[in-house]
Automatic annotation (TrEMBL):
Location relative to the cell: Cell membrane
Main location as per UniProt: membrane
Keyword Oxidoreductase: no
Protein's UniProt name: Membrane protein
Species for this entry: Aliidongia dinghuensis
Bilayer disposition of the protein: Multi-pass membrane protein
Disordered, as annotated region: 204-228
PANTHER family: ALKALINE PHOSPHATASE LIKE PROTEIN, UNDECAPRENYL PHOSPHATE TRANSPORTER A
Transmembrane feature ranges: 55-77, 141-162, 174-193
Length: 228
């Protein structure tokens, strides 16, 4: 993934700017395993280093890509349902374990999964597809998706941008210390998110130990609903 980002995504960012970052984010949000998070951070650092693209247009493009991609993913998930997702999802990385995680979280937390899921690597890619397959109410999905996409875009975009500015100004011991502290804080936050994600996956596996391919989708309240 790092090779793809360095050899393909970064040259595209240099030539086409925020459109590429927004496009990669949209693809990831639809369920395509694209490097959305890395593209956002790379674009923000590039903006801080060169000022050839603006951070505000970048964050706006990322938020738009995330929201549009999530809505397309929702439509895909609602259209194909769990049976086809379980049959073909493995080809795009949507394994049985990830499907169990999605079902488990939607049953327990509903709209919160859509809002906060963007901050978790697995859920960021597949939350919208699983929301559609779980037949989550579209209006609730739209609100949670819009707010979550805007918060994620702002947090990663502005966070990486200001960190990039700080790194470029490491000229004094205090600046070096602040830069190291900022990088350590970001790394710790990502590490804790990954650990929490692994814990949730374990809970989901225990909740659906014998789930077969014929399992039916459930609503946010946990009851089975027929397709509309």
């Amino acid at each position: 993934m790092s090779t793809l980002l360095h050899d393909t995504i970064m040259p595209l960012i240099r030539h086409h700017g925020v459109v590429v970052v927004g496009g990669v984010t949209m693809l990831e949000s639809m369920g395509v395993p694209a490097p959305g998070e890395s593209a956002v951070i790379a674009g923000a650092l590039y903006a801080a280093a060169t000022h050839e693209i603006g951070i505000v247009p970048l964050v706006a493009a990322v938020a738009a890509g995330a929201i549009i991609g999530d809505n397309l993913g929702y439509i895909i998930g609602r259209s194909v349902g769990f049976r086809l997702i379980r049959r073909y999802g493995k080809h795009i990385g949507l394994t049985d374990a990830r499907i169990r995680l999605g079902r488990y979280l939607f049953q327990r937390h509903g709209s919160k999964v859509v809002f906060f899921g963007r901050f978790f690597s697995v859920l960021r890619t597949f939350a919208s597809v699983l929301a559609g397959a779980n037949r989550m109410d579209w209006r609730r999905f739209l609100v949670a998706n819009g707010l979550g996409g805007a918060l994620w875009a702002s947090t990663y975009g502005f966070g990486a941008y200001f960190l990039g500015h700080a790194v470029r100004r490491l000229e004094t011991p205090l600046a070096v210390a602040l830069g190291v502290l900022g990088a350590a804080t970001l790394g710790t936050a990502i590490f804790l998110l990954r650990r929490h994600e692994a814990r949730l996956q374990g809970e989901a596996d225990r909740a659906f130990p014998d789930e077969g391919p014929a399992a039916q989708p459930q609503s946010e309240t946990g009851s089975t609903r027929p397709p509309r």
